[in-house]
Design a protein that fits this description.
With about 450 residues, the chain is an alpha/beta fold. It contains 14 helices and 16 strands. Bound molecules: pyridoxal-5'-phosphate. Its cofactor is pyridoxal 5'-phosphate.
Length: about 450
């Protein structure tokens, strides 16, 4: 049976180039784990070896792997209509999903609600859509000077060139810097190191003041602010106080700048509410949803926006239209998966059940607070982050990058050997399990975390 996995490893490395990987690290520093199937929170190898998916397969999975209701919905859709051009044609899953997303989207009393849905086929593409829409809207009004975006330090919005331009993770961005669009970075409201909610709120106000100054300094030149509300994921699971979002919303209004909420990772219950924006009571002008949108089954992105943005493109001229498209925009299978995932979220009371699970995660994470290597344990909803003091050993980059440096690789391997997939982001170990995770499975995460911390000790 072991031989079966080894055979797959050889065949894989003969032909595949893996994402986010220095391929030189395979197979020795970075073991390859061939997965035969998934079941609930578990990934199961060809040799029957099981590993708990502690990161929901890159933050996509919500209800467990191979969830039968979503699998059935996709199968049924595949037998009915697998794909159709979405320009000039329509289909039931795309319309129904748009109706349901708009009904669930964050809504601020007194503000015109999000009213239109534009489909892309992955998160980065959805970010491109939001950025292009914001720019193009001003352009259509004859305002050609608004060519800049503002993003936050430590932000991540994807890997395509437009998305990379508003990202601030040096290892991903540095090489491509000459190719990137103009962006300005406002300081993150990151609450790292805060000893109280009041201190986190003071940091949020300080960051908002800096944003105000940046908007002032770039008056008339900015088309949008893009943020990951409450939780900057790839930047190291850094969390902030909702006050920042209220201030940012007000500042965007005051400067006539669009607010883009990138809820690609935070959406669909990850932060404890269906959308992170709800916790601040704000509504963005553009909302990007992906990852958990389909329950983690298929790539899809929905960009929600207002009637005002939509109306800015209505004209007799084709050039004023938003001509962006992807071959698989609004793919029926992906929309059917998303509808089935929404059914589960709503009918199974997942958000309420997650409150119990999040409390169980908090209870277990508390034991790591006093660990000598740990600087901070923090949590927002279904995400726990255990941040280590910076690695005193040799490291490639001080920034949060997936399993970077030798310590990161040691922690990754130790967690895997202890039965869980945990991919540290720089100095940050985190738990982001599928929502179906049970108490006994959380104990596996605890054991894997102990093993990872053991492996993180400086070796002498
Ligand atoms: C993952 C992610 C993206 C990019 O989505 P892809 O589907 O990987 O292209 C964008 N923004 C945030 C906040 C993300 O976490």
């Amino acid at each position: 049976m072991i031989a079966a996995s080894d055979d797959w490893r050889l065949r894989d490395l003969a032909v595949l180039w893996h994402p986010c990987t220095q391929m030189r690290e395979h197979p020795h520093a970075l073991p390859l784990f061939p997965v035969a199937r998934g079941e609930g929170a578990w990934l199961i190898g060809f040799d029957g070896h099981r590993v708990l998916d502690g990161i929901s397969s890159w933050w996509t999975n919500l209800h467990g792997h191979a969830e039968p209701r979503i699998a059935a919905a996709i199968a049924q859709q595949a037998h009915t209509l697998e794909q159709v051009i979405l320009a000039g044609f329509s289909h039931a899953p795309a319309v129904t999903l748009a109706e349901r997303l708009l009904a669930l989207a964050p809504h601020e009393p007194g503000r015109a609600p999000l009213a239109k849905v534009f489909y892309a086929d992955n998160g980065s593409s959805g970010v491109e859509v939001a950025l292009k829409m914001a720019f193009h809207w001003f352009h259509n009004r004859g305002d050609h000077g608004r060519t800049r975006f503002i993003a936050l330090t430590g932000s991540y919005h994807g890997e395509t060139l437009g998305a990379l331009a508003v990202g601030d993770i040096p290892l991903y961005r540095r090489v491509y810097a000459p190719l990137l669009a103009e962006a300005r970075f406002a300081p993150s409201p990151d609450a790292f190191g805060s000893r109280s909610p009041e201190e986190a709120e003071r940091k949020a106000h300080a960051a908002a003041d800096a944003l105000a100054a940046l908007l002032e300094a770039n008056a008339g030149q900015v088309c949008a602010l893009i943020i990951e509300p409450l939780l900057q994921c790839a930047g190291g699971m850094r969390m902030h106080h909702p006050t920042y979002l209220r201030r940012a919303r007000a500042l965007c209004d005051a400067h006539g700048v669009f607010l883009i909420a990138d809820e690609i990772a935070t959406g669909f219950g990850r932060t404890g509410t269906l959308f992170a924006c709800e916790q601040a009571g704000i509504q963005p002008d553009l909302l990007c949803l992906s990852k958990g949108l389909t329950g983690g089954f298929l790539p899809l992105c929905a960009v929600l926006t207002t009637q005002t943005v939509y109306d800015g493109f209505l004209d007799d001229s084709r050039e004023r239209a938003f001509l962006h498209s992807h071959s698989y925009s609004g793919n029926p299978l992906a929309c059917a998966a998303a509808l089935a995932s929404l059914d589960i979220l709503q009918s199974d009371g997942v958000i309420a059940r997650n409150r119990v699970t999040a409390a169980a995660m908090a209870e277990r994470a508390a034991q790591f607070r006093d660990h000598p290597l740990v600087a901070e344990v923090r949590q927002t909803g279904m995400v726990v982050a255990i941040e280590l003091h910076p690695d005193p050993g040799p490291s490639e980059d001080g920034h949060a990058v997936e399993i970077a440096g030798r310590r990161g690789l040691r922690m990754y391997r130790a967690a895997l050997a202890a039965g869980a997939l945990l991919r540290p982001l720089g100095d940050v170990l985190y738990w982001m399990p599928p929502y179906c995770v049970g108490e006994a499975e959380l104990d596996v995460l605890v054991r894997a975390t102990h093993a990872a911390l053991e492996a993180a000790r400086p070796c002498d």
